[in-house]
Amino acid sequence: MPELPEVETIARTLHPHLVGETILSANLRWARTLATPSARKFREQIKGQKILGVSRRGKFLNIQLADFNLFVHLRMSGDLFIKEGDYKPAKHDRLILRFYFALPALSPSQAVAGDGDRSIKYLVFTDARKFGRVWLTDDPESVIGGLGPEPLSDEFTPQWLFSALRSRRRHLKPLLLDQTFLAGLGNIYTDEALHMARLHPLAASDSVKRKQAERLHESIRAVLAEGIRRNGASIDWVYRGGEFQNYFRVYDREGKPCPVCRKKIERLVVGQRGTHVCPKCQKM
């Protein structure tokens, strides 16, 4: 599943292509892709909406429209592409938004009429496993209101993390994966941050000392920033383009040497998630 760095990369890639454009129509090819509203209402409301911005909140992509917010959660296999010209839908395309591409030679009325394929472009949401979801709403809090703080924001401080960890009694990894606790972390970046902080994923959150919390805070920010710098991680056929997988410390490196102490990385299951740890660097 794409995590914060992958979604941030997609948002930054889409931003220059979408901001300022106006949506001409929506082709909803699988109705259950839409979480809200109904398909009919969605087509009516999104038509003619101008795109004001493209950003991210946690693992949600947020496309800000003139009157609404269009949220996309990619889940396991979702992705978003820009296509131009005479685009024919592919097998796994679930939603296609059609735009006027503001070429100087064509007016909006000519583009709507279809004069010149180069004047039309598309935002394509493709999702082979059909887990991804889309929301169109005028109330953003109804979708993202329950998310915890952004780990790269000013709100996420060492003191906040220490207090939040100590106020709960949960294993560290499941707590960090909880989007209501902290938004954006998934399996990859949690394993990487815990290794960098020298903390075991099964350690009790209320046992973490202040210095350990400060180290974890620094590690979370560091691995996310590096992930964004590397355009995320490409670990299978789902997400494309990133190279952070070439710099993993422990994730998906079972049996390989730890980059710090050279002990072999071990794999265990924590909260039903495959988890990678160094038995020497991350002692309980």
Task: Sum up the overall morphology in one term.
Answer: elongated
Strand order of the largest sheet: 2-9-5-4-3
Question: What is the overall number of helices?
Answer: 8
Largest sheet: 5 strands, mixed
Number of beta strands: 11
CATH superfamily of the largest domain: MutM-like, N-terminal
From the alpha carbons, calculate the radius of gyration and give it in angstroms.
21 Å
Strand percentage = 15-25%
CATH topology label of the largest domain: N-terminal domain of MutM-like DNA repair proteins
> Helix proportion of residues, in percent?
25-40%
- Gap between N and C termini: 28 Å
CATH architecture of the largest domain: Alpha-Beta Barrel
What would CATH call the class of the largest domain? Alpha Beta
Domain unit count: 2
The SS-based structural class is alpha+beta
Arithmetic mean of pLDDT: 92
The arrangement of helices and strands along the chain is HEEHEEEEEHEEHHHHHEE
Residue runs with pLDDT of under 50 for 5 or more positions: 113-118
